[in-house]
Design a protein that fits this description.
Layout (H helix, E strand, L loop, with lengths): L9 H12 L6 E5 L6 H13 L12 H7 L6 E4 L11 H4 L17 H5 L9 E5 L7 H12 L5 E7 L7 H4 L3 E4 L5 H10 L4 H10 L4 H9 L2 H12 L5 H10 L9 H27 L21 H17 L6 H22 L1
Parallel strand pairs: 1-4, 1-5, 2-3, 3-4
Helix pairs in contact: 1-2, 8-9, 9-10, 11-12, 11-13, 11-15, 12-15, 13-14, 13-15, 14-15
The structure holds zinc ion.
Length: about 350
Amino acid sequence: MSFDAPLGHGERLAGLLQSARDERLAHALLFTGPAGIGKFMTMRRLAIGLLCERGPGDPCLACGSCKRVLSGNHPDLFEVDAPAAGQDQITVHFIAHRPPEKKKPGDYKGPAIEDFLVLRAREGGYRVVLVREAERMNESAQNAFLKMLEEPTARTIIALESSRPGTLLPTVRSRVVTIELGPLSLADTRAVLHEQGVPAAEAEELARWSGGAPGSALALRGHGAPAMRAILSEVLAGTLDAGSAASRVWDVDGRFQGKTPAAGARLRVRVFLDLGLAVLGDLLRASAGVPDASLAHGDLARSLPPDSGAPLERCMAQWLAARQDVPLNMSPEALLDRALLALGALGAAQVAAR
Ligand SMILES: [Zn+2]
């Protein structure tokens, strides 16, 4: 478990720990902000700071309590993480106690938040519940959760994390204090990536492409984004035809394992189309006069011929349509070919305009 101080959010964290020392920390918190910026890491750091024997405050990382958190078995810390438990959704089984005989095969079988909350704090201090990707809570889970928020237990902190808080019921959102975190600076993002062993030149690019979200940068890296962007760049420059580009996309080395080979193929095409949309969006911004240097993919805009707005928009429309079709049961190969043909036409037009 990583409990490093999350770069860029230190001040907010210090403020929350100060509130705890002043006995005025809200009992229900919702951490929001873009994906991959370290929201959950900040929540874990808050948890260890609350549970530290010398706390609440900056955790010492040396006391018995800190060590138990670090080894992942502190009795007063409970984490809900649906994907880690092999579930797509946070169902009511994660929230409320249900007798085992009422559960169907495939249901989450582990302890629920309610099971955890009926216990007294084993170490006499705070008890902390962390919910990762709270947007995965279905409606019955949210309603069960609401009951918990209505009957707070003393010295119990429940913290939710979500980059899509709009999907939570308004009744849930109105009972939590929202802590909004923003992207990291590029320097902080590079520092996190460097710590994770990413070589400097790659860290530089990934920090820019991810817009200051180290978690997203690492996901992009795992999905072979540098190789994918090189393909996009060559097609745009008119030096790679759509067919050869498609076969290169299928050869990109990365983590594209799905539950089935088709799901893996869809994931690969989704990642490629998302990256292409980010590139095309930046090219459109550049053609509308936004300075290249302020754009994640601004370097690709330098070779844009003048008046490329309309062809860019046509290409963008094709990519958006292909991207929307990914979750449908369409062949990912066909969607990739369709998008690359549109991009290839754009590249050819650029060559002709030079
Ligand atoms: Zn400690």
